[in-house]
Amino acid sequence: MEELIISKEELIHFFETQKIIDTGRSWLMEGRVIEIIALHDIEPKFLQDVSNAKFYKLIIKGNK
To answer: Helix %, strand %, coil % for the chain, to 5?
Structure first.
């Protein structure tokens, strides 16, 4: 599996330009299923908003 770490701004840009597509069941990037994981620089027990991370890890899993 490939992994890619991107900033929040890059993630937003990927969705706006449809480099990442939300199918309602999964996220696709270049026709391959990906998993998006928020990377926080604080302890998980202090997390208030999982969508407000500075960086995200994209794990490319495979085909649809």
So the answer is: 20, 45, 35
Distance between CA atoms of residues 20 and 12, nearest Å? 9
Model confidence, pTM = 0.78
The residues pairing with 63 across neighbouring beta strands, listed in sequence order, are 32
Helix (H) or strand (E) holding 11: helix 8-16
Cα atoms in the 13 Å half-sphere on the side-chain side of 44:
3
16 CB contacts (<8 Å, ≥6 apart)? none
Query: Which helix (H) or strand (E) segment is 33 a member of?
Result: strand 32-39
Q: Tens digits of per-residue pLDDT, 10-48?
A: 999 999 999 999 999 999 999 999 999 888 776 655 555
